[in-house]
Write a structure and sequence with these properties.
The complex is a heterodimer of chains A (252) and B (400). Chain A is of the alpha/beta class and 252 residues long. Chain A is 38% helix and 24% strand. In chain A, a hairpin with a 2-residue loop joins β1 and β2. Chain A is globular and about 50 Å long. By secondary structure, chain B is mainly alpha-helical. In chain B, 75% of the residues lie in helices and 0% in strands. In chain B, α14 runs antiparallel to α16. Chain B is globular. The two termini of chain B are 37 Å apart. In chain B, 28% of the residues are buried. Classes of the chains: A alpha/beta (252), B mainly alpha (400). At the A-B interface, α2, β6, α3 and α5 of A face α13, α14 and α16 of B.
């Protein structure tokens, strides 16, 4: 895997980003560059702002101070820019959020046919390729409710990939899954990381981080406590909080 | 335990009448008493109703006035237009039944027999013949819908969309008195025809208006929100009657004197505006029941707000509110009877006219029972259609 690192034109750039929910200061000055092709894992205790952070990348949450630039487009109130960023950014949610009234195939082709304006037939061909890639082409005509959690999450990944995004965001993709289903989802994500996709992953799956992450960020109380390669984070963490947190989740 | 696991069929019980009776009607002494008493009450009331209907009631009041009840004082020379509309309605109903509803054979047979049962109704030979033709058309439509579904779905949907405007043009007419379709003034519209027209307009137009109001009420823009809230809360806090009165007596005071809106149209507008406020609240409930994650997922895929609403949120909301929607359609249909109070001769209004005829003084029970039967029949058909649609989309939701 080759990362085309270009420090002046990162895929995602955060400059001193702040976010408040009412009085609550959720993000407190996040600065970060993510290069094309990188896989970045974000972890930290609940309430640390990691979920808020990933949701600001496609502006599901609005930031109030600082600068977020995604693929050269700065996120502001400009609705057209927001839609452009979202078109180039796929997102996978903890609770899958598949559309229950549509079949698996319809879920996958909805955005390509309506946003990218592809022909239905072309979109369906690509959708079937993607469903094959995530390993469930035979479920194409079922409804999401008929699938297991792991299968649903793989459909969600295929649905996000159908837009041919440059960036994939994963917000705790395996947290709602039964243990025996986590692996099937992680395998798909690992394959995706090896294919050179730029990925931001909020997760506590440390095995995944060790296998594919280029860098890891430890969040706590809305700030980045520590960052580094998996090797550094796992073997030589600097901060006591990182050490404590890692010891807690690795024990499990 | 052997490794060879056996798969057992579920236990099978022989059905016997005696066992069913014991399980359902005579489980213990109390249920036995309830069964016997209920049977007695059903027998006594049922016999009373039958005896009255068949021997004591004087149905001439209905048969002599059937044309009034159906179309009011609509001129007899122009009745052919209404018959054409009824024929088209029969065709569309038959087609739609064959295409979509067609589930229980008993219901289908009843539906197809319906027009022919009306032929038995004592009336002019001509009317009975025409009714028979409508019946045949309905059956033809059903068969077409059942056996050629592929080519007909779209045309039938389009035909339904065109039907109401067409009905308006045909009922009203456009040409001078000597022309092919002379204008028939709304003053002589009446009976079931008027009731159906007001209900259809109200139900169909209040729906899009209700959706707009519901979306407006949930909008980010304060002005839109304020307008929607004020409208909905204002309308919902006044009775329908007063809205009708406003439309009939006060509206002309506000409008310039050279603009004169027809009385029937005024009633339709009032009715639409009124039921839209209720519709808005039902739709809002449905929209709010759709999880926030659905909209987020749609947004994250790059869908615009409008597309997200149209393709993701709204279809789910609609499914949520189907039962309420059926109920409100039926409610709206019956509420049209209030136009009688502002002087329109809908079914109820015509009934009062008939009861004032010297020949039929005191025939209240016959007339009102007949009205009740019509209202019941139409409401039941709508309810049945609603249930069928629910079952069809419910199938998906059960699998989900």
């Amino acid at each position: 895997m080759v990362i085309q690192s270009d420090p002046h034109n990162p895929m995602i750039r955060f400059v001193d980003v702040h976010k408040w929910y009412g009085q609550f200061h959720a993000l407190r000055g996040i600065t970060m560059d993510i290069q094309k092709g990188e896989t970045v894992v974000v972890f930290g205790p609940s309430g640390s702002g990691k979920s808020t952070f990933i949701r600001t990348i496609n502006r599901l949450e609005e930031h109030q101070r600082g600068q977020i630039i995604v693929d050269g487009i700065e996120l502001t109130h400009n609705v057209r820019n927001i839609e452009r960023v979202r078109t180039e950014t796929g997102m996978v949610f903890q609770s899958f959020n598949l559309f229950p009234h549509l079949t698996v195939l319809q879920n996958v082709v909805l955005a390509p046919t309506n946003v990218r304006k592809w022909k239905k037939k072309q979109a369906e061909e690509i959708a079937m390729q993607l469903l094959t890639r995530v390993g469930i082409p035979e479920q194409a005509n079922k409804f999401p409710g008929q699938l297991s959690g792991g299968q649903q999450q793989r459909v969600a990944i295929a649905r996000a990939l159908a837009m041919q995004p440059k960036i994939m965001l994963f917000d705790e993709p395996t947290s709602a899954l039964d243990p025996e289903m986590i692996k099937e989802v992680l395998d798909v994500m690992i394959g995706l990381a090896h294919s050179g996709m730029t990925m931001v992953v909020v997760t506590h799956e440390m095995g995944f981080a060790r296998a594919v992450a280029n860098r890891m960020y430890f969040f706590d109380q809305g700030t980045i406590i520590e960052e580094g390669t998996p090797e550094k984070i796992f073997n030589h963490p600097e901060s006591d909080r990182t050490k404590l947190f890692l010891s807690q989740i690795l024990e499990k | 335990m052997s490794t060879n696991q056996t798969i057992l069929p579920p236990p099978f019980e022989r059905f016997s009448v005696l066992k069913w009776l014991r399980d359902n009607l005579f489980q213990n002494w109390f249920s036995g008493v309830v069964t016997v008493v209920s049977l007695y009450v059903i027998f006594v009331t049922g016999r009373g109703i039958l005896v009255w209907t068949l021997t004591q009631a004087k149905w001439q009041v209905i048969t002599a006035n059937i044309q009034l009840l159906m179309v009011g004082q609509y001129p007899s020379t122009q009745l052919w237009r209404i018959w054409i509309l009824v024929g088209i309605l029969g065709l569309l109903a038959g087609l739609s039944w064959g295409l979509w509803i067609n589930q229980r054979p008993v219901a289908t047979i009843l539906m197809l027999l319906g027009p022919f049962l009306l032929v038995l109704f004592p009336g002019s030979t001509q009317a009975r013949l025409q009714m028979a033709v409508v019946g045949v058309i309905t059956v033809v439509g059903y068969l077409l819908g059942k056996f050629l579904p592929r080519f007909l779905k779209k045309p039938v949907i389009i035909a339904w969309a065109v039907y109401l405007p067409l009905a308006f043009i045909m009922v009203r007419g456009w040409s001078a008195d000597s022309g092919p379709m002379p204008v028939v003034d709304t003053d002589v519209w009446g009976g079931l025809m008027l009731t159906s027209l007001i209900a259809a307009v109200g139900i169909i137009l209040s729906y899009p208006l209700g959706v707009i109001l519901a979306v407006g009420r949930m909008s980010r823009y304060p002005l839109m929100r304020a307008v929607s809230i004020v409208y909905i809360e204002l309308i919902r806090s006044v009775p329908l009657i007063s809205v009708f009165f406003m439309a009939q007596t006060m509206l002309p005071l506000f409008l310039p004197s050279n603009i004169d809106i027809d009385r029937v149209v005024r009633a339709m507008i009032a009715f639409t505006l009124f039921s839209a406020a209720y519709m808005a609240e039902s739709v809002r409930g449905g929209l709010q029941a759709v999880p926030k994650g659905q909209h987020e997922a749609a947004a994250a895929l790059g869908l615009s707000n409008f597309d997200s609403l149209r393709l993701v949120v709204f279809p789910q909301a609609l499914k949520n509110i189907l039962p309420i929607l059926t109920a409100s359609v039926i409610g709206d249909f019956r509420d049209t009877s209030l136009v009688m109070i502002v002087g329109l001769l809908d079914l109820l209004g015509i009934a009062r006219v008939i009861l004032a005829q010297p020949a039929f003084l005191g025939r209240h029970i016959e007339v009102y029972s007949f009205l009740a039967a019509i209202y019941w029949l139409i409401s039941y058909i709508m309810s049945y259609i609603g249930q069928t649609i629910e079952a069809k989309v419910g199938l998906e939701s059960k699998l989900n």
